[in-house]
Amino acid sequence: MLTTLIRKITSNHLVMSGLYKGVSGLSLFISIPILISYLGDTDYGLWVLVFALFQWVLLMDFGLASVLKTKVPILIHENRQDLLKSYLKSTYKITAYIALFLFVFFLVLIFIIDLKTFLKIPVHSSMFVKKLFVINMFFFCLNFLFNVHKSLFVAFLKGKYAEQSIAVNQILFLASLGVLILIAPNIPSEDKLMIITLLNGLSCFLVNFLYTLFFFYKEELNLKTTVKTSKEFLKEIIVLGTKYMIIQVGLLFVFSSDNYILSSVFGPKDIVPYEIVNKYFQFPIMIMLATLSPLWSMFAKNYVQNKKAVLLASFKRFNLLFIIMFLFIALISLICPFVISIWIKDKITLPSGLILYTAIATLFRVFVTFYTFFLNGIGKLNKYIILLLLSVFLKIPLSYLFIHLNFGINSVVISTVIILLIWVVFIPLECYNIIKKIPSDE
């Protein structure tokens, strides 16, 4: 009986995705105080800026990864195997071209802009900062290509393996970081940053490469086909992919530009309190994203099959689940100062209100994420994009307004709360309006 229960749990992609994301989050939380202690506040702030750039690059795929999660379930449902192979082959080719273009583009950009002055980096030479960004950019673009496997696992309704690969990557990096600290605790700060860059880049590449091979082996799939992707199909993919890219870049701008705004005003060292609280509250978001990730392709499949009752039932289940999430976020907000005092050995002064504002932003984001996954899954994106573009235009003016009003680093979080409040009202309404238009199940 126990064996049957374990088998049921391990075969449930929603449960296992959440579990693996929990492991990833735990590894990330353990690595943060280690990095702060090893690098110091200023160099850790610099590493955060570099890593934030990594997130930007991963989303510059013109929405190809997102289109995979929407289109592949439809092609499988229609049993168009040759077109599927052709589509995957085209995706890898286009992704490789984009990776090459991005590396050259950012290489030129990094050497044109004085990053040390722009980001108010008080230590290291300008040339070292440029070199650090270039090496990271190389690894980021390399992993950009091999990162496609995550979307493939989700598209084939095996999302737990995508989260498993992330967990393995985090654990491998954490282990290599521990070895580095043991064998080289007192090397110069520039050497520390360079070695951590290499460890992060190589571990990420190794895991992504092996899981790419694992995907094609598990699905017994190869890219050998004589069928060419039609121009009409490619055009449809590019149009949909462009929409996804606008969404991805917009989301990243709203949620990940804070570090650059704060650095340009206060400097890298002042990012640390914000980053610690932000990472602390990312845990429920990470769990939610991992749990919901397989739903993207399931929404696409159920929408194509006009399963109105199934979709409405999933909405109802989430709304009930959100009550638990609300209580969980309230609890972790109350214990946040205590946890941070244990988690981060160095004394960190948190601005008054930062925990409350971040908790509210997290609560809003968790709620709205489910409904945005539905819109992404079915490809109904026009109104969502308009709302997102308005949010992008509001983000910086709102942030600087609150900075001008002396809200300090809380300013970027308050601006996010205001934007998310608008989303919480309009996005679920749009989802229910779409559901109403689906013919009732026979």
From TrEMBL:
<keyword id="KW-1133">Transmembrane helix</keyword>
<protein>
    <recommendedName>
        <fullName>Polysaccharide biosynthesis protein C-terminal domain-containing protein</fullName>
    </recommendedName>
</protein>
<feature type="transmembrane region" description="Helical">
    <location>
        <begin position="94"/>
        <end position="113"/>
    </location>
</feature>
<feature type="transmembrane region" description="Helical">
    <location>
        <begin position="46"/>
        <end position="68"/>
    </location>
</feature>
<keyword id="KW-0812">Transmembrane</keyword>
<feature type="transmembrane region" description="Helical">
    <location>
        <begin position="320"/>
        <end position="344"/>
    </location>
</feature>
<keyword id="KW-0472">Membrane</keyword>
<feature type="transmembrane region" description="Helical">
    <location>
        <begin position="409"/>
        <end position="429"/>
    </location>
</feature>
<feature type="transmembrane region" description="Helical">
    <location>
        <begin position="281"/>
        <end position="299"/>
    </location>
</feature>
<keyword id="KW-1003">Cell membrane</keyword>
<feature type="transmembrane region" description="Helical">
    <location>
        <begin position="166"/>
        <end position="187"/>
    </location>
</feature>
<feature type="transmembrane region" description="Helical">
    <location>
        <begin position="237"/>
        <end position="261"/>
    </location>
</feature>
<feature type="transmembrane region" description="Helical">
    <location>
        <begin position="133"/>
        <end position="157"/>
    </location>
</feature>
<feature type="transmembrane region" description="Helical">
    <location>
        <begin position="193"/>
        <end position="217"/>
    </location>
</feature>
<dbReference type="InterPro" id="IPR050833">
    <property type="entry name" value="Poly_Biosynth_Transport"/>
</dbReference>
<dbReference type="GO" id="GO:0005886">
    <property type="term" value="C:plasma membrane"/>
</dbReference>
<feature type="transmembrane region" description="Helical">
    <location>
        <begin position="350"/>
        <end position="373"/>
    </location>
</feature>
<feature type="transmembrane region" description="Helical">
    <location>
        <begin position="20"/>
        <end position="40"/>
    </location>
</feature>
<feature type="transmembrane region" description="Helical">
    <location>
        <begin position="385"/>
        <end position="403"/>
    </location>
</feature>
